[in-house]
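From the methods appendix. Each design record in this collection lists the discretized structure first, followed by the designed amino acid sequence. Records were kept in a plain field format so they could be parsed without special tools. The example shown here is representative of the layout used throughout.

RECORD:
C-ALPHA CELLS (572 positions):
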C-alpha cells in the first residue's frame, strides 16, 4: 500500500502519472555587491523593462490558453510594478545603499506583508501575486532562468511549492496528469488557475517536495484532495477505473452543450450564467448559456486606484453582451460592502458589514459613483437590446424608487447631451433580504423582474453570517424558513406576471432542483462550470415527480431532516 498525503481539493478529477518536482531557483543575493546608486538604478530599470516585456508575452500566451482571469493576475502584477508607491520604495532603498536585489526584496516584501495583514480575503490574496512578482524580479536580476515547463513527458504530475500565474504560461498542458503544491487554498489564485486549466489539483500539502522524490509514481484525486505515492497494483487499477469514470462523466456532459434545457416531461427551463470575473463571459458562451442572469459589476472596481470611468464601464458591458449575442444580460449595479471591498472606493470598515453600508444603500449615498454606472448602463443598453438593469439588496419600495429616479435623471441628462438611450430598459431587483421576500407582492408592482439571491437571503433569514466558518454548519438552503420564502417569492412573481430568476448558489445545488421546479422556477443562473451539470439534472425530473418531492420535503420541519431526505432522493 502506498503512502497517502492529504491536502486541499482544489480542482476535481483523477490523475495518474510520475512526479516531476519543480524547485524554486536559488534567489540568494547575499553575495551581490552594491555597485553605486546609478549602476543599481540602471540594473533595476533593465530588470523592470524585461519583466514587463515577458509579462506581456505571458499574458498573450495565457490569453489564448485560459481566457481573462489568468491574464488579469499578470496585469495586476504589471500594475503593481508600475505603482508609484512601490517604485518610490525601490528608489529609496537604492539611495540608502541597497543593491537592486535587496531593494526588490525589501520593497516587495513590505507590500506583500501589508496585503497579507488585511482582513478582506480578496485583497489578502494579492500578497501571493506580490510574492510572485518579487521572485520573478529577483530571478531576472540574478540571471536565473525561470523553470521551463513547456515540454514535459506524458503523464507528468507536477509537484511544486506554489503554482504561480507566470508558471502556467506556456505550460505543456496536454502532458500534465495532475498538479500537487505545498501551498494554496480552495479559493486562492492557484486553485483558480488549476480549474481554468481543467487539471486535477491538490494544493496545501506542506513539505510535499520533501515527501515526494522526483520520479515517484503518483495517483491524485483532485476531488477529495488525496495524493497516493507508489500506488500498488490494486490501487492503480482502482484509480484507473475512477479516472475512466470521471472522463466518461465529463464526456457525458457534452450532450448538454446546447442552448435549450428542459425537464424530462418537456417543460423548457432557461439556464443562464453568473458572470463574476472577466473570463466568465467566454466560459458562459462555451457552455451555450441562454444569457447571463447576473453580471457582478463590482469586479470592474477591484485592483485599482480610481473607480472605472463611464466609458470603461460602457465598453465592458458592451463587450460582455457581444460574447452572448442576442441573449439576455442582467447588469447588477455595484454591490460593494459586506465581504466585498474595493480600495478605490475608500469604504470605511464596519463592525457588522453585512448589516451595514452595502449594495444599493451605499450607491444611493454615493450618487456620483452610482450615476456614472447608470449612465454607462443606459448607453450600452441603447446599443445592446439584451441588457437589463438590476439593483442589489433592495429592502423596500423607497430604495427601488430612489434608484429609478436617479436612472430617470441620467436618462434625461444623456438625452440632453444627444447621446442615445434605450426606449425601454427593464429594471429588476435582487430579492435577497427577508424584508423584500415578505413584501414581494408590493415590490412586484414596481419591478420588471426579480432575481432571488439565496446567498444573502439565507444568511439574513437564518441570522448566519455567510462567511463565518464557525457557524457554517447552520448555513443551509434546506431550512423550512428559506424554502417557504422561495416558494412565496415565486408565487408573488407569478401572480404579478413578472419573470423570476434564482442566481444564488442554491440554483446549482442538486438537492434543490426538484423543489425549485415545483415552486415554478423557470430561470436558473449559475456559475459557468455548473451550467452543463445543471442541464443534465433538470432533464431527470418530470414536474409531477418534482412536486411530489417538494410536498414530502415541506412536510418535514427540521432543516437536517429535509436535507437528509433530499440527499436520499438524489441517491435513489
Ligand atoms: C446572492 O446573494 O445570492 C447573490 C447572488 O449575490 P452575491 O453573492 O453577489 O451577494
Ligand atoms: Mg447578494
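DESIGN:
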Amino acid at each position: 500500500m502506498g503512502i497517502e498525503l492529504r491536502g486541499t481539493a482544489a480542482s476535481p478529477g483523477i490523475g495518474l502519472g510520475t512526479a516531476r518536482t519543480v524547485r524554486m531557483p536559488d534567489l540568494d543575493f547575499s553575495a551581490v555587491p552594491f555597485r553605486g546608486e546609478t549602476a543599481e538604478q540602471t540594473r533595476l530599470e533593465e530588470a523592470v523593462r524585461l519583466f514587463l516585456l515577458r509579462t506581456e508575452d505571458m499574458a498573450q500566451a495565457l490569453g489564448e490558453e485560459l481566457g481573462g482571469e489568468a491574464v488579469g493576475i499578470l496585469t495586476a502584477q504589471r500594475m503593481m510594478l508600475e505603482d508609484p508607491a512601490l517604485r518610490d520604495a525601490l528608489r529609496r532603498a537604492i539611495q540608502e545603499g541597497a543593491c537592486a536585489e535587496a531593494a526588490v526584496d525589501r520593497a516587495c516584501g513590505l507590500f506583500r506583508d501589508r496585503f497579507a495583514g488585511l482582513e478582506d480575503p480578496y485583497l489578502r490574496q494579492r500578497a501571493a501575486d506580490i510574492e510572485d512578482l518579487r521572485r520573478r524580479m529577483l530571478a531576472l536580476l540574478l540571471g536565473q532562468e525561470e523553470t521551463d515547463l513547456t515540454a514535459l513527458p506524458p503523464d507528468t504530475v507536477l509537484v511544486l511549492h506554489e503554482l504561480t500565474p507566470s508558471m502556467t504560461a506556456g505550460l505543456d498542458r496536454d502532458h500534465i496528469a495532475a498538479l500537487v503544491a505545498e501551498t494554496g487554498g480552495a479559493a486562492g489564485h492557484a486553485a483558480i488557475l488549476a480549474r481554468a486549466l481543467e487539471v486535477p489539483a491538490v494544493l496545501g500539502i506542506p513539505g510535499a517536495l520533501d515527501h515526494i522524490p522526483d520520479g515517484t509514481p503518483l495517483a491524485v484525486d483532485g476531488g477529495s484532495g488525496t495524493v497516493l505515492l507508489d500506488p500498488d497494483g490494486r490501487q492503480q487499477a482502482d484509480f484507473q477505473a475512477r479516472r475512466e469514470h470521471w472522463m466518461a462523466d465529463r464526456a457525458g456532459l457534452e450532450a448538454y452543450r446546447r442552448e435549450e434545457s428542459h425537464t424530462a416531461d418537456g417543460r423548457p427551463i432557461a439556464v443562464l450564467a453568473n458572470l463574476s470575473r472577466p473570463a466568465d463571459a467566454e466560459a458562459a458562451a462555451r457552455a451555450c448559456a441562454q444569457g447571463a442572469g447576473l453580471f457582478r459589476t463590482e469586479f470592474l472596481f477591484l485592483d485599482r486606484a480610481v473607480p472605472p470611468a463611464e466609458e470603461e464601464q460602457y465598453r465592458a458591458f458592451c463587450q460582455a453582451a457581444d460574447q452572448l449575442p442576442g441573449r439576455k444580460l442582467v447588469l447588477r449595479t455595484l454591490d460593494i460592502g459586506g465581504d466585498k471591498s474595493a480600495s478605490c472606493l475608500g469604504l470605511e470598515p464596519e463592525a457588522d458589514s453585512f448589516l451595514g453600508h452595502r449594495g444599493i444603500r451605499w450607491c444611493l449615498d454615493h450618487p456620483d459613483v452610482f450615476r456614472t454606472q447608470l449612465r454607462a448602463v443606459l448607453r450600452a443598453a441603447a446599443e445592446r437590446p439584451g441588457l437589463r438593469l438590476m439593483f442589489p439588496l433592495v429592502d423596500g419600495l423607497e430604495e427601488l424608487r430612489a434608484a429609478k429616479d436617479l436612472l430617470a435623471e441620467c436618462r434625461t441628462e444623456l438625452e440632453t447631451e444627444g447621446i442615445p438611450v434605450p426606449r425601454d430598459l427593464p429594471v429588476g431587483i435582487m430579492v435577497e433580504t427577508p424584508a423584500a421576500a415578505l413584501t414581494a407582492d408590493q415590490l412586484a408592482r414596481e419591478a420588471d423582474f426579480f432575481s432571488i439571491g439565496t446567498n444573502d437571503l439565507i444568511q439574513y433569514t437564518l441570522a448566519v453570517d455567510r462567511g463565518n466558518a464557525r457557524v457554517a454548519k447552520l448555513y443551509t438552503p434546506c431550512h423550512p424558513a428559506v424554502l417557504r420564502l422561495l416558494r412565496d417569492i415565486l408565487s408573488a412573481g407569478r401572480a404579478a406576471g413578472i419573470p423570476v430568476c434564482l442566481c444564488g448558489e442554491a440554483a446549482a445545488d442538486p438537492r434543490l432542483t426538484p423543489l425549485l421546479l415545483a415552486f415554478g422556477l423557470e430561470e436558473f443562473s449559475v456559475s459557468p462550470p455548473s451550467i452543463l451539470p445543471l442541464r443534465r439534472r433538470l432533464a431527470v425530473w418530470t414536474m409531477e415527480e418534482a412536486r411530489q418531492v417538494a410536498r414530502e420535503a415541506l412536510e418535514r420541519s427540521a432543516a437536517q431532516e429535509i436535507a437528509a431526505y433530499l440527499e436520499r432522493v438524489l441517491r435513489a
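APPENDIX NOTE: Residues 37-66 form the longest helix (30 residues).
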